Amino acid sequence: MSIRPKNGTFYDGTAALNIEADWHVRHEDVVSALDKLRSPETVEVLFRATQWIPKSLEYDDSRALAVKAIWALGKIPGTEAETKLETLARFENTILRQNAVEQLERRRKAA
Question: Taking the model in full, what pTM does it have?
Fold first, then answer.
C-alpha cells in the first residue's frame, strides 16, 4: 500500500508495521503521522492503535494513544472510518466509548 495525499506526505505502510512494535516508544508519533494523512488506507492501523497498549504506555490510564487514534479516525472520510468509530462507541471502556461518540457526533454535524 502506498498513498500520497494532497499535502505531499508519502505513506507506504511502514507505520502499520511499527504501530504495534515494542522496540520503540514513539507510538503516539506514528498515530500523529497517520492523522496528518487522513487517508482511508490508515483506518485499520488506527483502529488497532485503539486496541493495543504498548508496554511504554501501560501506566497511562487516560489511554492517550487510543484517544489520539480515535480523533484521527474521526477526520478520515468514508464509511470504513465511521464503522470503526461506531464499533468503538459500543465498547465498555468509557474513555474509548466517549471519544468515539464525540467523533461520530462531530462527523454528523459536519455532514
Answer: 0.81
